[in-house]
Structures are given as C-alpha cells and as structure tokens.
Please model this.
Amino acid sequence: MRRAFKTISYYSILIALVIGLSRCHDTIDIEPGVDLTHIAYQPVPYSPLIPERFPALEQPHDNHMTIDGIWLGRKLFYDPILSIDSTISCSSCHQQFGSFTDQLAISPGVAGVTSRSSMSLINIGFHHSGLFWDGRVQTLEEQALIPVEDPKEMGESWERVEEKLKDHPTYPADFRKAFGIETATMITRELAAKAIAQFERSLISGGNTKYDRFARGEIFLDENEYNGYLMFFDFEPSVPDAECAHCHNAPLFATSDFFNNGLQESPDFLGFVDKGLGLFTGKPSDNGKFKAPTLRNVAFTAPYMHDGRFETLEEVVDHYNSGGKSSPNKNALLYPLHLTESQKSDLIAFILTLTDSSTLVNEAFQSPF
Amino acid sequence: MKIPFTLFAIAMFISFSSCKDDKEGSFTLHFKPLYDGEPLQMFSTRPGTGTEQIQFTHLSFLISDTKLLTTSGQHDLIDIDYVDLSFDDLEDAEDGFSIKYDEIPEETYLGVRLGVGVPPDLNSKDPSQFASSHPLSKTGYYWEAWDSYIFMKIEGRLDTLGNGNFDTGFSYHTGSDDLYRVLEGLLDIEVEGGKNQDLNIAIDYKNLLEGINIRSNPQNHNPEDSIQIARIVNNFQQSIILYP
Model:
C-alpha cells in the first residue's frame, strides 16, 4: 500500500513537472499536420542599406528578402539542429567575431575537422556565381543545402532535419510567417535554404570604413595608407604595382573569379593536394584554383587562404612578394614584386583601411538564442 | 456568318505570321584563336622569338556595338558581349567561341562592324552599375587606375631560355577610351529566312603580339605604360581573318 502510494506520488510529481515545464514555453507545440493558417502571414519586404558604389543586391524572383524570412534564416543559421549531433551550426564556422569566419586554419565539423578554412560571409549576397572556395554552386540557396549533408561538416540528412523542424515547437510558426505554409508538413529543405540565404544576403558590411570615406572624398588616408593604395591599384608609375586589384577589386575587394595564387609547386596540373575549382569543373587546368575572398575586414579573418596556411597579413604579403610557387597554371600576374619592407608595410596599412568593426557587433547579425 | 469570318481572320494571321518567320534567319559569329595560322589551345607550347617558347593561359576580350552593314545603313546586333578564347582542348579551339543572333532580316549584308573594347559612353560607367548577368558587371574586367574597363586580356608564360622552364609570366590588358577600336570587315553575308549564316573571325595571336618584347616588358597596367598595349590594339586589324 505504502509502495503503491510512493509510486503514485512519484508519477504525480513527474506529470506535474512535465506540465509545469511545458507551460514555461511561451509557444504552443504544433503537431506537423495541424493547420497553421490562424497565424498571420503578412510578409514585410526588407530593404537592405547598400553602401555607396556597391552593386545592387540582386535577389531571386522566388526568394525576396522579408523581415520574417531573415529572422527564420538567422535562427536556422545559429541553430545546431541542422547537424546530426546538434553540435554544429552554420555559425560554428562563420562566427560574427571573426567577420563570419571561425579564425581557424581548418574549420571544425561533426567528424572532427572539415577540409578547408571557412570563408567570410560578409557581402556574400553580391556574389552571383561560384560560391565556396571551389565554386561548386552558383546561388546561396544551393549553397545552404550542402553543409548539412557533408559528412565532415554537419553529417545530417535533410530528411531528418525536415522532421526535426516539423516537430519543433517554434519553427512551424516561423516558416508560416516567412513563407506562408499552411501546415508544418509543408516545411522543406528548400524553404530552410531560402531562409538561410535571406539572412546571408543581409550580412552587408562597408560604407563607413576608412577606405570608403576616402573614396567618397570625405577624409585623407595617411601617407603609408595612401602609398599602399597606389600600389594596390597601380595608380602611380613611381611606386611598384602590387597587382592586388586583379583579384580583389573595389568595391567588394573580391571578384567571382578563381585563381591559382601560387600556393603549391607542381610540375603539372595533377600535383595539387587540393584541386579547388578543378574538383567542380573537371578541367585539369582549373586544378589549384580558388575563389578570391573579400579583403574587407581581413583584419579579423586570419588565418588566411583556403587552408589557413598564413597566420598573418605579413606572411600573405611576403608570399605575393615572392611571386608564389611554380606550376603551369599559376596566375600570370604573380611574379616577384621586389617590394621593400616599408612598401609591404604600406600595403598592409592600406588593406587595414577596409576594416568595418561595426559588423562584429551589429545586433541584427547576432545569435537570436 | 461571324464564325467563319473569325476563323478566316485567324488563318490569315497565322499565314502572315509564318510568312514573317520565313523572312528572318539567324547569324552566328565564331571567334577562333590562332597562333601562326594554327588553332591555339591554352598551355600548348609554341615557338616564340629566337629560342624562346611561349604558352598562353588566358585569352579574352569584350566586343561592342556589333552590326551587320547594309546598303542603306546597318542592322544592330548587340551592345556588348564577352568573348573567352581560353580553350584547353584543340577541338574546342577549332570550334571557337560562338555568339548567335536571331531574328535577322533576310538580306545580303555587306559586312560586319564591331568594336573591340567598350565604347566611351559605356566605359564611363563601372561594374556596380550593371546587373550581374551583364558582361560589364565583371569586376575582374575593370581597372580602377584607368577608370576603364579592361578591353582585352592576353596572359601566358614564357620560356626565355628555350629549355622547357617557363620562367616568366606575362599579362597584357588593354583599356581606356583612347584604345577603343572599331573594326569593319567587308564581305557578303547572305542571311536567308529560317536559316543560319556563319561568319568566322579568327584572331592570330602571333600577329597580335608583333613588336612586343615579352621578356623585357611582361606586364602593363599603370596609366603611363600604354606603348605596348597601344601596339597590341593597333595590331588587331591585321591579326584578324574573316571567312564564311
């Protein structure tokens, strides 16, 4: 009798706890098949602030940015629910303090480490082709689908992610507000990717850097920065041409092109440890070519290159000053520059004028959790 | 009585529409890279000056204001196009880079006119002013120091000693309003309704680099270093072979 009473008390406490805890949520659990149409779907278009001289921010006709779409994308970006063991989110490799890199040579993943260093995501919305270091996808919507099923990155299946999102207490309502779905069963990987892409397009940085203000004629650069500027763009015949702007052209200080920047010596096209663009195109002459990332906020994105081999900007400039290592498809614009220590220092001084530290504390980019 | 009249009108409309289609054809330009008269693929070794050997790694240019010439004037084809001749395979180099223009009125045209580079009105703009699908949106094809698009890129490497060691990279980029050139080729181009007419434009890069000392001046970019690129631009006309 006493034992039965003890058991009933135990279960009563357990039930009370479950009820109590579930009441702590400010949202109501929504079953996957339950009608969501009582939740308002009133998409509010988002108008991004585009810095002067930047190109227009083009958006796919079927995925225009909205306040709710960006909010959902931001949640998904920061939520490890996308990974098999709930340890890795997009933000694990793209952290705000690192201008959306993780400041590691090789990024972590569910299986230990991935294959490459994470690339900064700032201004990624202005890139309309050749995403990833190897250019394997052309849109942010396509890109957002890849890491989830990469065994080294998140190691999860989209089928399982879709189920987790459908069963989640808050995501069905978020998807409803963002995309107007009528039941949680309508949550798909494509919608999740669209939301993440919307958030990524909102990661705009620039406009008030020292360089931007100088370019608008508002301020002067100091003597060292200005000398670096002349070398960076080859404005002045009396200073050396550092050949930087071919791959890192203003205003984004990036291009959508791919280059073999002389990181590895190889007698032929087949000797590259990481084939880069060649992995995607299958063209041997594309082996060893990688996307030129933005130099905006490069002060926060060390270590550098696709494999994080250079820890400092000084090492990077030393590499380019050397002309790089020989291979058949090494870019023709890489040759010994013969820059002096002072000139190298000036070049770095200019590159640091591209720093926008406000990106690192922008509340709109922070984790919503 | 109204129904047969309507049917008659529809039949007449279809009939006239068909007639109109028959009076338009298409026209395709095929740009082909050559070196000393032979098809040129990238990374193939060709004889240079003396014992030097040369390999090309990238060849491209912008064309603009392309027109077919008529007795009464011209038929506009397109404002700007990007031509990439960086073919790794010989077969691809032989096929060339093709641009097809549809809805060309049936006529025997007198020739073709095109600009190499970007005309001044467009060259005063920059890539941020164009949609990403437009050829002039390419930031890698704009050079701040010139306030100009790059009109043409010729890149490669040179084996200066002829020993198989390609020790010198070279890169010639042309640009700026002064170096915009309009070329005209006069030959009959007969466009027939419903058919395609081809025109091949072969560019011999050996002739294009005539008079350029690659070894002593393998790069150019700064605004005061225009002698070499002016020479390349002025070589363009004599480097082109047109054939149907």
